[in-house]
Amino acid sequence: MTTLAAPAPHSRLARLSDYLWQHPKQVLIAMLILPVLWLGVVYLGSLATLLVQSFFSIDEFSGLIKHDWTLKTYQELFVPANLDIILRTVVMSALVTLASAIIAFPIAYYAARYAKGVWKALFYIGIMLPLWSSYLVKVYAWKLILAREGILNWIFTTLHLDGLLNVYLALPVVGGSSLSVSYTGTFLVFVYVWLPFMILPLQAALERVPTSLLEASADLGASAWQTFRHVLLPLALPGLIAGSIFTFSLTLGDYIIPQIIGSSRLFIGQAVYMQQGTAGNIPLAAAFSVVPIVIMGIYLWLAKRAGAFNAL
Amino acid sequence: MTMPTAVLFEQVSRHFDQIKAVDSVNLAIQEGEFFAMLGPSGSGKTTCLRLIAGFEQPSAGHIEIFGERVEGVPPYRRQVNTVFQDYALFPHLNILDNVAYGLMIRGVDKKTRYQAAEDALALVQLKGFSARKPAQLSGGQRQRVALARALVNKPKVLLLDEPLGALDLKLREQMQEELKALQKQLGITFVFVTHDQGEALSMADRIAVFNQGKIIQVDTPQALYRHPNSPFVANFVGSSNVLAPDFMQHLGLPAQWASLRPEDIQLVQTGGYSATLLSRSYMGSANRIQLAIKDQVLHALVPHHLALPADNSPVQIAWQPNDLHVMEST
């Protein structure tokens, strides 16, 4: 009599392979255990620790942490000076996100719809190249570009437009003694540094929109603008939201750019850095760190309510 | 014809770099006609449709829609609507909003356009589907939505780009009948692109057969089938035995190209041409047999009840003289 099955394997490796094939669940567990431990213990664990710290407070005389549950530290966030920091950071993040979206859309649209072969490769290199060089180098390069002795000022002077630049710098809030020490400078560098994080998800979303949908819209009488408003934008919204999560949260948490370029007024990241370092106020630093998390939570909730994920 | 011309092509070409997708095409589609553009893929039929819709502009020649020249007129200013091959329903809108899209763009108020959209959905037998999203519909239902979305705008010409290609056979046959009935009922000019000759024959009033960017023949289904003007048409529309001049001479006939339909070949006792029966395949209603005269293989369809001799036996075959259609050229 013949049997269908091949003779039982002798080598240990072959037996292991058979065992794993017969027990797919255990393979899954073996593959997931390390990442889950990393995410669960190291990542979520430290986040929980942070959250716990923010409910402690500091003794103003001794500078020691009092391990009693209190909302006192959160109340401190609403002191006008701290509220200013939060407001300044949120407004900056929103403006950076908006500007990134406006600049990224045509670039991403071109790449998704028209770029082919070599041009597509050049697009990816062009977008990714800035990400390959050190973040600090880029920021310091921008400091030189924006400085009073920098190339931007030189261009304005050469074109005899320095009067225009001076008028702009004389404006309240956005101006300053030079672009490199103004909010405008901070804003420009934020947009430059985070732009790739907006372009890439947006391009991925636009690439998934079939050309026939745009043709159908035109066929049904819609002009280019109407097609953009009623078809392209709603379908690109998930990509736009994904990109804005990057640009918004990265700006919310950054402490290096506003420290190097800008007026010396603080952003949330700098406040956290200062409170946990020089000031030694870990609870307040923790409370400050919770702010971006809460803001992102609210942002995503609003986006969901506005139907941003309906096209997913 | 006294009917006005709905679509007119005069020496229209569309070149993509070196490729002549459409090559000096002349065409006149009458108002109220169900017109099919038939051809293999890459023959230029879809490009012709896109030229009418306005998604492509001609490289040369000119196009008129109801007497109006449309070169340079964008798609959104043409009274022409399209049913796309992939249906192209907007995935983020529900069925009602999809159908009402064209009216919404034109600024028709909500109540009126939703009423019109509901009526259009009823016309394609999709009442009660308004609130669903396209992803929740079957292929056949999506096809109907695409049809309703185009028809609700009351186009002067409706373009259909292989609209039944993605449907299974049963559904396709059902939709063929429905489309034909709908066209009769509405009286709108339909221009239908297909690579399926059976579909074109069963639905269209007239058919243009495309090959390599050119129109080979324009005729009614009956005329196209009975009198193909070239071996290409003879082979593409239905199946045919294309007889070369050499072989015609061998039969003692004038040395010309000719087409002979398989169903026109009969087995006779005496007085026919001597042939060999090579093989047979059972088709249900008929037997499809392969015959040979000298080196020429001929296909014939014979009734299923006809008793056939064994393979490789000699037979006599004949046909009516007027079933052999002489063709002008290759």
Describe the structure.
The complex is a heterodimer of chains A (312) and B (330). Chain A is mainly alpha-helical. Chain A has one domain (75-311): MetI-like fold (Orthogonal Bundle), CATH 1.10.3720.10. In chain A, 73% of the residues lie in helices and 1% in strands. Chain A has helices spanning 12-22, 24-54, 72-77, 80-113, 117-132, 135-146, 151-158, 162-169, 183-207, 211-219, 224-253, 257-260, 268-276, 282-305; strands at residues 57-58, 65-66. A two-stranded antiparallel ribbon of chain A has the order 1-2. The termini of chain A are far apart. Chain B is α+β, with helices and mostly antiparallel strands and 330 residues long. In chain B, α2 packs parallel to α4 (139-151) and α3 packs across α4 (139-151). Chain B is elongated and about 75 Å long. The mean pLDDT of chain B is 92. Chains A and B meet through α10 and α11 of A and β6 and α2 of B.
Keywords:
heterodimer, A: 312 residues, MetI-like fold, B: 330 residues, alpha+beta, 6-stranded mixed sheet, 9 helices, 18 strands, 27% helix, 33% strand
| Class from helix and strand fractions of chain A | mainly alpha
Globally, the shape of chain A reads: globular
The succession of helices and strands of chain A, N to C, reads: HHEEHHHHHHHHHHHH
Alpha carbon gyration radius of chain B: 24 Å
The neighbouring-strand order within the major sheet of chain A is 1-2
Helix content of chain A: over 70%
Count of individual domains of chain A: 1
User: Helix count of chain A?
Assistant: 14
- What percent strand of chain B? 25-35%
Topology record:
The complex is a heterodimer of chains A (312) and B (330).
Chain A: H1 12-22, H2 24-54, E1 57-58, E2 65-66, H3 72-77, H4 80-113, H5 117-132, H6 135-146, H7 151-158, H8 162-169, H9 183-207, H10 211-219, H11 224-253, H12 257-260, H13 268-276, H14 282-305
Antiparallel strand pairs in A: 1-2
Chain B: E1 5-16, E2 19-30, E3 34-38, H1 45-53, E4 60-65, E5 68-69, E6 80-83, H2 95-105, H3 110-123, H4 139-151, E7 157-161, H5 169-186, E8 189-194, H6 197-203, E9 206-211, E10 214-219, H7 221-226, H8 231-236, E11 241-243, H9 245-250, E12 257-260, E13 266-268, E14 273-282, E15 286-293, E16 296-303, E17 314-318, E18 324-327
Parallel strand pairs in B: 3-8, 3-9, 6-7, 7-8
Antiparallel strand pairs in B: 1-2, 1-4, 4-5, 9-10, 11-12, 12-18, 13-17, 14-15, 14-17, 15-16
